[in-house]
Amino acid sequence: MDKKNALRAGALAAGTTLMMLLMSSPALALTRDDGDDPGAGLSVAQTLGLYVLCPVALFAIITGLVMVLDKSKTRVTKPAKARAKA
Question: What's the rounded Cα separation, in Å, for the pair 49 and 33?
Fold first, then answer.
């Protein structure tokens, strides 16, 4: 990619990001809506457990189940390329 296209892509990405930041006003988050009932906040340990440890544990459990319950006896391998006779 030449410099002109890279500069154009960078300017577009920066402009889009800037517009998104300007259009989303954090001041609107201070106004409570009807029926808004926020609960207690999470601690750091609870947040890490919920968003890091639980997905990793779920991935490990699914991977383990797939490996253990795999019933196939044969393994499919790619055939070696036929050597051309010269």
Answer: 30
Q: In 10 A of CB 35, how many CB atoms?
A: 5
Residue-wise pLDDT tens digits, 22-33: 887 666 667 777
What is the rounded CA–CA span in Å between residue 55 and residue 74? Answer: 31
Reading the block at residue 53, the tokens are 């440890």
Tell me how many helices (H) and strands (E) the chain has. 3, 0
Q: Which alpha helices (H) appear in 1-86, and where do they start and end?
A: 3-23, 44-48, 54-68
Is 0.70 topped by the overall pTM? Answer: no
User: Distance between CA atoms of 51 and 18, rounded to whole angstroms?
Assistant: 28
